[in-house]
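Please, structure for the following, as tokens.
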Amino acid sequence: MAVYNTEFSLTKRAIDSVLQQDFQDFELIIIDDGSKGNDRKELLAYVEKYEDKIVYIRHSNRGQAESINRGVLISAGEFITILDSDDEYKTHHLSSCLQEMEHVDLICSTAETVVDSVEDYYVPDKNDLSKPIHLDDAILFGTLFGHQKVFKSIDFKGGFSADSAFFERAETLFKTKKVFKRSYIYYRNNPKSTCAVLKKQLALNEN
């Protein structure tokens, strides 16, 4: 989980959703990407309560991609997955992902998406930013789940649609699959999210 100036209440919700999983053999690595303000102090105080489950590291602001890459570098688990700091897992998310891994190296899935309007179910197509595609047809960063070898073979690159770029590169090297389940809760009603900011910029450009 990469964190950058996320409201503590949202980050706590994300952390708690991991701690409450029905599969408990995990390590949560939180990479603080140079956050400022009191929220980071609250975050540090909270994770100190769960030092048997959580690793917390901090570096200067480098962006989500580099932060996740660093987390991958120090991870030791057989499987790796990602959680955005303003999203959350349903209690069976990890166990349900593990059930999908018998014959593949990497999966991504659909999500339960929380929106303010129907428009929020759509994001710009990475191949043509003027065209919207439904989230069910997109690759969602937080739903990636796979063997350690996948994540340690392919770095995340910064910029829009880093998740799709990662999955497309993985498809050429590993066995991949998209599954239809909604155990990841994706909050699109955050006006500060990358997609929300991009959609606003595109709308301004059109005007």
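The CA atoms of residues 127 and 161 lie 10 Å apart. The chain has a mean pLDDT of 91.
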